[in-house]
């Protein structure tokens, strides 16, 4: 009998004395109804009528938000995931306010993320990670506060285009690079053609100027010769004879020249030329 009593005392003490470790809180129910929350340390409850229904950690909880497909405002598909850091400040609200607060918060973050990214186009979504994070935190903080949970922060881990979008973006980038290369090549060819035409124009202009200069020089030379000979044909015959001989020498130096015969009477030949010119 004494042994039974002693066992009953031990069991009663075991059920009535509760030691809660640091970083945890215990939710106690009395006859199936919430009674109180035990903090860290030694706690006494009424055995048999009070029971510890839930043991909740008060440390920060890291929730991994799985990857999901998100459609942007311009109908591009991107893949995004996140991680949320939460802390339970009211264990009784967390355990009685929602069936599974971890699963509920994960779904809430995923839904809010789809909604926020859905209001952005692809470029905005890929380049505004901090903005998405701020909007996401603002969107879910009030909701989970009703469950006695505080959202410490939420981080966007990855936000990338889907494989199909990556392939399309790579093809678009390659096409854009090819277009720029074609434009650059065409511009270079155009500039080269303009420079070549300008070169030909400048050369033609200078050739014409040179011919004018040569004609003016010839005119001046003829006028000087005419003034110098004063009707005497001998100097003229000498000059024409010299030109005549030089011309025959050039003819004889040609590849097709085989035999060149000089006239026996060069002065007569020159007079013949002068006679033809005078006619």
What do these coordinates show?
The protein is of the alpha+beta class and 279 residues long. Helices cover 58% and strands 23% of the residues. It contains 8 helices and 8 strands. α3 packs across α5. The mean pLDDT is 86.
What tags apply to this protein structure?
single chain; 279 residues; three-stranded antiparallel β-sheet
Tell me the radius of gyration. Answer: 54 Å
Largest sheet: 3 strands, antiparallel
What's the end-to-end separation, in Å?
Answer: 169 Å
Strand % is: 15-25%
Shape: rod-shaped
| SSE arrangement, N to C | HEEEEEEEHHHHEHHH
Q: Spatial order of the strands in the main sheet?
A: 3-2-5
Q: Helix share of residues?
A: 55-70%
Q: Give the tally of β-strands.
A: 8
User: Mean pLDDT across all residues, rounded?
Assistant: 86
| Count of runs of 4 or more consecutive helical residues | 8
| Structural classification | alpha+beta
What's this entry about, in short?
With about 280 residues, the chain is of the alpha+beta class.
Question: Could you outline the blueprint of secondary structure elements for this entry?
Answer:
Layout: H1 2-16, E1 17-20, E2 24-30, E3 33-38, E4 41-44, E5 50-57, E6 61-71, E7 77-88, H2 91-97, H3 101-117, H4 122-127, H5 129-145, E8 149-161, H6 163-229, H7 233-253, H8 266-278
Antiparallel strand pairs: 1-4, 2-3, 2-5, 6-7, 7-8
Helix pairs in contact: 3-5, 7-8
């Amino acid at each position: 009998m004494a042994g039974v009593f002693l066992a009953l005392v031990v069991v009663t003490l075991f059920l009535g004395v509760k030691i809660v470790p640091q970083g945890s809180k215990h939710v106690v129910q009395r006859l199936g109804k919430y009674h109180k929350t035990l903090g860290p340390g030694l706690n006494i409850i009424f055995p048999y009528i009070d029971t510890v229904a839930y043991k909740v950690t008060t440390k920060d909880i890291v929730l991994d938000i799985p990857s999901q497909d998100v459609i942007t405002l311009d109908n591009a598909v991107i893949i995004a995931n996140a991680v949320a850091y939460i802390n339970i400040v009211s264990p009784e609200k967390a355990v009685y306010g929602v069936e599974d607060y971890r699963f509920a918060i994960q779904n809430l973050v995923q839904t809010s993320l789809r909604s926020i990214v859905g209001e952005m186009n692809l470029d905005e979504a890929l380049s505004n990670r901090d903005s998405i994070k701020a909007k996401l935190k603002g969107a879910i903080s009030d909701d989970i506060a009703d469950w006695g949970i505080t959202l410490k922060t939420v981080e966007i881990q990855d936000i990338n285009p889907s494989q199909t979008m990556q392939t399309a973006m790579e093809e678009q980038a390659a096409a854009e690079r090819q277009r720029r290369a074609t434009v650059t090549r065409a511009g270079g060819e155009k500039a080269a053609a303009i420079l070549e035409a300008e070169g030909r124009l400048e050369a033609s202009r200078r050739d014409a100027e040179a011919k004018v200069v040569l004609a003016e020089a010839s005119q001046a030379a003829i006028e000087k010769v005419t003034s110098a000979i004063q009707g005497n044909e001998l100097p003229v015959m000498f000059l024409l004879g010299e030109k005549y001989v030089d011309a025959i020498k050039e003819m004889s130096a040609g590849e097709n020249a085989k035999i060149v015969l000089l006239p026996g009477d060069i002065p007569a030949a020159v007079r013949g030329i002068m006679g033809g010119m005078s006619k």
